[in-house]
Specification:
Blueprint lengths: L1 H28 L4 H8 L6 H11 L5 H13 L13 H36 L4 H15 L2 H15 L12 H30 L3 H7 L4 H13 L1 H24 L5 H11 L2 H29 L1 H8 L1
Length: about 300
């Protein structure tokens, strides 16, 4: 198990390096002039002399690999540069916004696990009966509704019409309910469908008949032989849902004025704030990769064939 974990950790570094360089190159080689955007945000008239000076200060007059190497050296020391819009260190801005995003994404993931998984099991155990049809209809509607549109509907119903919950801000547990539901809805419905299919696949295996023939209680058969074996595919999908929830929180945070990284990133996109965008994507990749690493470890713990196959 230790060797499997070490191999997985070592494989993350080339992935992070390649992804960070790809995004860095896209920003530099895309449409538009970073020096022009820098002068616009600094409210400096874009004369030829000012553009030349800005390119020199930003290092845009150097080769792309030299620019990336300089940025990477600073990033490894925790320095992601200064935001062109806020004029503050990007690292400080992101660390200030990170807790709010993790709180929202963590609560949404908790909803996915506590609602999506049990409903998927419930639907599979009542296959082709009304509970199965009802949960599949709910899943279809949940996947079809964009999270930002669902957020507007929740605000209209629970904040404007009923007045039960706050519509914006981060002032207490009550303000977390609506954005968490809007963020989790789509992932919850996807997890429901995946868990249902996984349980149905396990229910058709022969070892369940042998477990029942041994006289094991139905609850034991369902818990140890059905649910535990069916958890492997949904557990693999959790790593993808982590990135999906954080990415989906970007728009939801704007709808609910939630002071997180998504709101910070959208403001950076609107203003073409290159250092802020680079820092956000780098931190998002790090969170996504670490989440997948934890899922891989749990996957190998549930299914020993994974780590034994890697060792062979």
């Amino acid at each position: 198990m230790g060797g499997f974990i070490l191999r997985r950790i070592l494989s993350l570094f080339p992935l992070l390096l390649a992804a960070s360089f790809a995004f860095f190159a896209m920003l530099r080689l895309g449409r538009g002039d970073p020096a022009m955007d820098y002068l616009r945000l600094a409210q400096i008239p874009p004369s030829d002399a000012a553009l030349a000076l800005a390119r020199m200060e930003l290092g845009l007059d150097r080769a792309l690999l030299a620019q990336y190497a300089s940025w990477l050296a600073d990033a490894l020391q925790g320095d992601l540069g200064l935001s062109w819009f806020t004029r503050r260190p990007v690292t400080e801005d992101l660390l200030a916004a990170l807790p709010a995003t993790l709180q929202l994404a963590g609560t949404a993931m908790l909803l996915v696990l506590l609602v999506g998984l049990p409903l998927g099991i419930f639907a599979a155990l009542h296959r082709d009966r009304w509970p199965d049809h009802a949960t599949r209809l709910i899943a279809f509607l949940g996947v079809s509704l964009p999270n930002f549109w669902l957020g507007f509907l929740l605000v209209l119903l629970f904040s404007v019409t009923l007045g039960w919950l706050p519509s914006m801000g981060r002032e207490g547990p009550a303000s977390l309910i609506l954005p968490a539901i809007a963020t989790a809805a789509m992932s919850c419905c996807v997890m429901l469908r995946l868990m249902r299919a996984s349980v149905l696949g396990v229910l058709g295996e022969r070892h369940l008949a042998f477990a029942a023939a041994r006289g094991l209680p139905r609850r034991t058969v369902l818990g140890r032989h059905v649910v535990l074996n069916a958890m492997v595919p949904p557990l693999t999908a959790i790593g993808l849902h982590l990135g999906e929830l954080i990415g989906g929180a970007m728009v939801v945070e704007m709808v609910f004025s939630w002071p997180g990284m998504g709101r910070y990133a959208l403001i950076a996109i609107t203003n073409r704030d290159y250092p802020a965008l680079q820092g956000f994507v780098m931190l998002l990749m790090l969170v996504f990769v670490l989440g997948n690493l934890l899922v891989d470890i749990a996957y190998a713990w549930l299914d020993p064939r994974i780590r034994l196959g890697g060792g062979a």
